[in-house]
Amino acid sequence: MVSLIAGLTILIVGDSHLATASYLIGSLHDDLLRQGAKAVHTIGVCGTTPGQWLAATPGPCGGAERIGKAKAVVKTEGAATVPISDLIAADRPDLVVLVFGDTMAAYGQPDFPKTWAWQQTTSLVGAVAAAGAKCAWVGPAWGTEGGQYGKSYARVQLMSKFLAVNVSPCRYIDSLQFSKPGQWATVDGQHFRPAGYKAWGDAIAKALATAPAAGAHR
């Protein structure tokens, strides 16, 4: 089977799941290069939401950036988002992969902020579409219940279902399909141990390589 990743320039943007070297900035980035991607640029800022990538916004808990085969450059403080329009203009990616969900789910809060989440989601998707890039949105994985962020299986399911119908024209990648609840061990309920990030990255890369992403064509 020919990988749909081969020859592509790919930009990956997201939250804390991309902000540490052993997270998706390691596994997913490497997998896409192995699939034959021409270039991969990954940038993650911990604690950020989609709308904060429309303009430069300081991150509350560090971030990381990785270009090609180089090692990830991690900032424990002083990290900030880069406007998605600037990133797309600089990289001219064939595919933009957006990794957001946990920072929008309001774990521990009684109500899901649906209107706010819709504004966050559609604003970023709109900016990517306006730049003429094809895109895929990676939703949250199960994690484990409780922990530092109060994650719950019910809320992560709600978040995933919400994203599935609100990220068009991006293709939605449902991470809940890749494992069973609690299958991948976490350090805090939300962030996985290296084996979990390896499995998640592998599953995302396989999904991207076997079905086309959606969105505008240049």
Provide the domain count: 1
Name the CATH class. Alpha Beta
The sequence of SSEs as H and E is EHEEEHEHEHEHE
Number of helices: 5
Q: Which percent bin holds the helix content?
A: 25-40%
Low-confidence stretches: none
- CATH fold node name: Rossmann fold
How do the helices and strands line up, and which of them pair or pack?
Blueprint: E1 9-14, H1 24-34, E2 39-45, E3 63-67, E4 73-75, H2 84-91, E5 95-99, H3 114-130, E6 134-138, H4 153-164, E7 171-173, H5 194-210, E8 214-215
Helix pairs in contact: 1-5
In a few lines, what is going on in this structure?
The chain has 218 residues and is an alpha/beta fold. The protein contains five helices and eight strands; from the N terminus they run E-H-E-E-E-H-E-H-E-H-E-H-E.
